[in-house]
Specification:
By secondary structure, the protein is α/β, with parallel strands linked by helices. The chain contains five helices and five strands. It is elongated and about 80 Å long. The chain binds [cytidine-5'-phosphate] glycerylphosphoric acid ester.
Length: about 150
């Protein structure tokens, strides 16, 4: 009997935390379907993504643990998705622990431990700090050149 697992996420700047979650979810059943948050829905969630919905969907579809991807555009659609996909298991990382227990009347709800020490937010912070450093280096060089030019 085909056992479908359903999950949701933004999956921006796809990283090893996402991969390890999808790998564990795929092992829970025969088919893994993913609701990927649209750019409009992320705005609603107060999230600005680096990668567009189309790019994040393409990344997920390229992941061998994922069988299909559909758009997540609001909080209320999960019941409909679970019935449409005939999902037996609904699973998320434990940063969402307890948040979707209300679905337990139609599906088995599971929360899996997140992968520690990696997140899209941390990657964004790292990139912006490198950018900041580079900017400062450049400003220092400019100052140095100006002081050289002033001595001419
Ligand atoms: N995740 C993980 N380990 C990490 C980072 C993320 O296991 N180091 C998991 C999260 O727990 C989540 C999934 O990867 O189950 C996707 O994470 P996000 O892209 O941050 O998803 P989010 O924006 O929280 O969207 O309706 C639910 C929302 O769509 C969830």
């Amino acid at each position: 009997m085909n056992r479908t697992v359903i999950t949701y996420g933004t999956f921006d700047l796809f990283h090893v935390g996402h991969v390890r979650l999808l790998k564990r979810l795929a092992k829970l059943g025969d088919r893994l379907v993913v609701g990927c948050s649209t750019d409009q829905f992320n705005e609603l969630k107060g999230k600005r993504t680096i990668m567009s919905y189309a790019q994040r969907k393409e990344m997920l579809e390229a992941c061998r643990y994922v069988d299909s991807v559909f758009p997540e555009s609001n909080w209320e659609q999960k019941r409909e998705d679970i019935l449409r996909e005939q999902a037996a298991i609904f699973a998320m990382g434990d940063d969402w622990a307890g948040k979707f227990d209300d679905l337990a009347d139609i599906v088995e709800v599971i929360y899996l431990p997140r992968t520690q020490d990696i997140s899209t937010t941390e990657i964004k912070e790292l990139v912006s700090s490198v950018k900041q450093e580079k900017k400062q280096e450049l400003l220092n060089v400019c100052d140095h050149l100006i002081s050289l030019a002033q001595r001419l």
